[in-house]
Amino acid sequence: MAATAGPDSPSPRTTPTEGSVPEASGTRQRTQARLVLLRHGQTEWAASGRHTGSTDIPLTALGEDQARSAGSRIAALGLHRPLVVSSPRSRAQRTAELAGLSVDREWDALVEWDYGDYEGLTTPQIRETTPHWTVWTHPCPGGETIDAVSARADLVLSVVVPTLADRDVVLVGHGHFSRAVIARWIEQPVTEGKRFAMAPAGFSVLGYEHEFRQVHTHNVDAGS
Question: Which of 3, 4, 9, 79 could join 168 via S-S bond, C-beta 3.0 to 4.6 A?
């Protein structure tokens, strides 16, 4: 899957290599910068464990309630002039809308992992032919490779990090790709995303302590 560059971003051909994502520099103290990752609310496929990449599935009624709850919690963060960027999928945009977030830009670099032939299947169904399969450890035939997801996450961060020098950023997207971004934020391989759960309409706050990237809060969800 080719991700187009975002506003004021480098071309995908200049995507930073692993471990080379730039750092924030600007008028704000680095420790003031916050990057919020918000997953979309529940959909029917998410509720049943079906892998949902390119298929555009709407939120359930519960998913809409989750999005509203997330909005009140994010509002309480008191973000500084937040730039809100959303995946183009309707489930992400609807989540942003119900959360009271005004989307400044859509960006296809924020779409979910491309599951290829496994689109719409559950993990138990996939394991009938590929034992022990997970998206973090095995390929998705016809879909996105781990290296491609890593490059896309680094592209996203190469755009986000300079923006944090002046304002906070909210990325509204999807579960697996948000977990990949978290892993790359803390300078770990994308496969370490397996260690970060993301509930429907859950959000995480990433930032800094001194020069170190940190996960400040993680997977704050509607039920927490």
Answer: 79
CA distances from 123 to 41, 195, 214 (A): 20, 17, 30
Q: What angle do CA 51, 177, 128 make, to 5 degrees?
A: 30
In DSSP terms, which residues pair with 203 in a beta bridge?
A: 38, 220
Name the burial class of residue 62, with classes exposed (0-12), middle (13-18) and buried (19+) by CB atoms within 10 angstroms of its CB: middle
174 in catalytic set:
no
Set 51, 64, 97, 112: catalytic member: 112
Q: Which of 40, 51, 174, 176 is catalytic?
A: 40
Number of H helices, E strands in the chain: 6, 6
- pLDDT tens for the chain, 224 residues long, are 345 545 444 333 233 333 344 455 455 677 789 999 999 999 999 999 999 999 999 999 999 999 999 999 999 999 999 999 999 999 999 999 999 999 999 999 999 999 999 999 999 999 999 999 999 999 999 999 999 999 999 999 999 999 999 999 999 999 999 999 999 999 999 999 999 999 999 999 999 998 899 999 999 986 65
Coil vs helix vs strand at 105: strand
